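Q: What would this complex look like in 3D?
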Amino acid sequence: MNPLSRLGRWITDHLVMTLGILVLVYMYIPNMVVALMSFNDSSKARNLYSFQSFTLDNWLHPCAPDGMCQSVLKSIEIGLLATLFSTIIGTLGAFALVRHRFVGRSAMNTVLFLPMASPEIVMGSSLLALFVASGLGGRLGFWTILVAHIMFCLSFVVVTVKSRLAGLDDNLEQAAMDLYATESQAFWKVTFPLVFPGILGAALLAFSLSFDDFIITNLNAGQTVTFPMFVWGAAQRGVPMQVNVIGTVMFLLALLVVLSGEFGSRRRAKALAG
Amino acid sequence: MVAQTPERSDAELPPPPAPTGATRPRRSLTGYWLILPVVLWLGVFFIIPFYSLVASSLFDPNGSVLTGYDVTFHWQNYPDALREYWRPLLRSLWYAGLATFFCLVLGYVLAYAIAFKAGRWKNLMLVLVVAPFFTSFLLRTLSWKLILGDNGWVVDFLQTVHILGDDGHLLATPVAVIAGLTYNFLPFMVLPLYASLEKIDGRLIEAAGDLYASPARAFFKVTWPLSLPGVVGGTLLTFIPAAGDYINAELLGSPNQSMVGNRIQELFTSIGDYAAAGALSVILMAIIVTMVIFYIRKAGTEELL
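A: Here is my prediction, written as structure tokens for the whole assembly.
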């Protein structure tokens, strides 16, 4: 190998990783700004969105802005219900698609792809058109938001659980049944525990999609205010710095959940390896 | 002399149940029952709404939400909407296209690093790709407003090196909107790219090297073609939501950068012109579907997710 191509090899080896890490850092810049701004004292100039002076007040009194914590609770409530419902029926659907043959199965796979590939503004406005056409135009609110959230979470749940299920070794369940497990024992003792991480991941994804949704929610919310809608409304007149506390807490919580799952599975893998 | 009867030792145990094929796909009513809730939910709240949307795009524009609309097959709504809103429509496609390109460049580097260079840090890096998105995207977009603001260090730096004039801005320019779109949709690019890069057998790339291909040539002749399914999937998952987005244009741009999403949302919520809003939504969807079909044909891959 001549020195020039050795140099080329060295550059590709380390340059790619360096560039990759730089891209990753770029993805975290806004999160760092959000965390920084959660310590910002904006009491002097509320409409100026810039760092003025350090304070712990926002963390000590997170609920000080009118209506903010109510909107957070509303988002959590909707998020939990949407997650529960979409995870249950989505998981059933994933089992149907992987484990059963039925008429229209491949069409179903396409239909499930569509909500992920439609612009939110189109989905949201279609739903609004439906609600208005069925006379619910004046009663938009909690229930219409919930219905919409379950709708757009469903595809993501089915796809996530499906990929976990498809990667499962069929022989394990068969082996359990060769060892005299009944069909339902084999399911609950072997299949379900193996699929469970996939279901959990799907639920986490569904919750974060629901908690963060703005475009579809905004069209179908009526007078109900979720957290993203509170931020949007506040953005017009000056955001209270406490929203950054909520943003930072959500981020840290999610990171904790995901990382503990990640290190947990690494430990399990190590234990299995001996 | 002793006859070996291997079946003998099993005699005390009942024979294991005959394989029922439980793990193999089978045809029974169970499948229908399991899929039914999903079908119902998506049917009622995803498919039927499209019908309502198309119906509302044909409303007589003289109606209102209060007095009700007449469904009059008012096809004129479509040319009207196009004439009125072709600018934001084109701008949406243009911005989304540019953002998709930048996402592809950045995303490819990151996905490539994770798939081939990360080693045992692979899973951790994947988690780190998704993690920023647990902070509300509105907050993250607002923080770009701070970073790109006139007093921020990005503008300062660009002014120091004379890329921007002394009174130059970034906010309220297409640059800010496209940067925001690129940032917001980057993970939608990274994950499909990673999924298809990860499947590539590293020995193929080595083989190309053994056959005297330069690293660049090996990349363009081996790695890139094999990663095409991820490129197609990623560009679609980036382009489609970006084309419908209006948050970035609203927070980082000015009315001069408004995209078709801004118009649709205004027409629905503050102006209340359902006929025009419906027509514009249908047009956007039609353009996207046409482009997607054309693109998939061209890229020659049907395997998406």
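A: To summarize the key features: The beta strands of chain B are 26-27. Residues 32 and 39 of chain B are 10 Å apart (CA to CA).
Q: Very helpful, thank you.
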